[in-house]
Amino acid sequence: MKMENITRRGFIAGASCMGAAAAFLKYLPLPALADSLAQGTRVAASPLVDKGFASVRKIGEGVYATISDPSKGLATLCNGGFIAGKDGALLIEGFASPAGAAFQTEALRMVSQAPVRAALDTHYHFDHSFGNAYYGVNGFPLWAHARVAPLMVQRYATIQGKDKSAVIGPLQKKIDSAANDVEKQRADGNLKAMNMLLQSVDQTLVTLPNHSLDPAKLPMKVDLGGIEAVIETYPGHTPGDIIVRVPAQNIVFTGDLLFNGSYPVTFDADMLGYRDTASKFAAFDKDTIFVPGHGQVCGQEGVALERAIFDDLAEHAKKMAAAGVTVEDAQKRYTVPEKFSKLGIFAWSFCIDSAVAQFYNAAKAGTL
Asked: Which residue from 67, 69, 75 is spatially nearest to 92, judged by alpha carbons?
């Protein structure tokens, strides 16, 4: 298959999904860089390239962050970046479409002609892996945690082209049976998010990583020539998450183990592990630059925000468990506090329900 055909397919998929996604993404414009970063010398004042849906900005010597703005398009949807040394380059994330992966590769070639050592997915979710086909046709080795390829087959490849009514039907029923406007709004958001995901699955050439990283052999150092990257694994967001660090420059690409400016997506997370990972990030150097999976580049203030979100969800679940209410009622009763009122929520069931349920069960078991 020709590279341009795959890229075109990615644009078509993005356009098709835009209708389902726009309703809940258009009001989440990307915030500006925090003053602490914007006024510093490490992060470039102007982007290398800006296409609206994403921009690429230098954040270190040979290190660049690709930051998505979903309010302006869904070609990338998540954040990523690349690290370019004298002898090789590492591309981070496959993004939501081949067009997104192409955008990042073209940005790399604006600053370096070093051969691509690998393209890397931080985890299996569609917005980080559905552009893998572009890397594949370009002959780039595709690395990921050993759990990623099996999960992509199980969650995506096996349902392509099949009837989705068993998934969509119950979500529609929850809208119809909602007891009030709040429940109806949440249920409607859940349906829109699921439709977006399922449309993407059906319109994507699912391309699996061809080099699995054994978590037992991580961390792994990658010498790119003058720049050393370290691949590590931490629990939390999915059953198989990795991050990429540039220790000499205190830079970390976190994947979705860190969200900045929104509630983390938790539908298949390990919440106790997720919370513990956030605590570990907080112990990194105070001047660390984090490239989160979603949201603006940040420092430790971004980690502090995620920890505060987890603390709030856990405290709510603990109170509900102690009060003897059901887990379903605990999920319904969670209210976003005023201090988090400006944070985005991709969909209630994707971000809140699973987190509350896991913290609730942990509280009941005495492990919270």
From this structure: 67
